Amino acid sequence: MKKTLIIGASSKPERYAYKAAESLLKHGHEIELLGLRPDVIFNRRIDVDKKAYSEIGTVTLYLGPQRQTEYYDYILSLAPKRVIFNPGTENEDFARLLAEHGIEAEEACTLVLLASGQY
């Protein structure tokens, strides 16, 4: 199983990105974390630099559309199978760009997908 990269990762337990990291780990998924502030959650570092992670199968976004632009080329370079646009992150332009590169763009909630066995 390939890893999930959470973009918009947070060390604040009330944030959905934090809850997604916790749930992904509970469901046996490997994760990488990319956020705006360095920190550590669940014994994993939240990186602030766009690293060339290997074997990323899914990118799940917790950044609004206005902040996603700077990540377009980076996400394309990772060549994930899919990108999940969680509620509030929907972005038709980016979804279209992903599709042009053969990457599935899915408007969904990572937490719901995990809870319902659809992840």
Question: What report would you give on this structure?
Answer:
With 119 residues, this protein is of the alpha/beta class. The protein has one domain: 3-Layer(aba) Sandwich (Rossmann fold). It has five helices and seven strands; from the N terminus they run βαββββααβαβα. It has helices at residues 16-26, 65-68, 72-78, 92-100, 110-115, and strands at 3-9, 31-35, 39-41, 44-47, 56-61, 82-85, 104-107. β3 (39-41) and β4 (44-47) form a beta hairpin. The chain is globular, with a radius of gyration of 13 Å. The model has no long low-confidence stretch (mean pLDDT 97).
Write a brief caption for the model.
The protein has helices spanning 16-26, 65-68, 72-78, 92-100, 110-115; strands at 3-9, 31-35, 39-41, 44-47, 56-61, 82-85, 104-107. With 119 residues, the chain is an alpha/beta fold.
Give a quick set of tags describing it.
seven-stranded mixed beta sheet; 7 strands; globular; 28% strand; Rossmann fold; alpha/beta; 119 residues
Considering DSSP H and I runs of 4 or more, what fraction of the residues is helical? 25-40%
Radius of gyration: 13 Å
Q: Any idea what the CATH architecture is?
A: 3-Layer(aba) Sandwich
Class by alpha and beta content: alpha/beta
**What's the average pLDDT?**
97
Strand content: 25-35%
CATH structural fold name:
Rossmann fold
| Total DSSP E strands | 7
Mind telling me the CATH superfamily name? NAD(P)-binding Rossmann-like Domain
Strand order of the largest sheet: 3-4-2-1-5-6-7
In CATH, what is the class? Answer: Alpha Beta
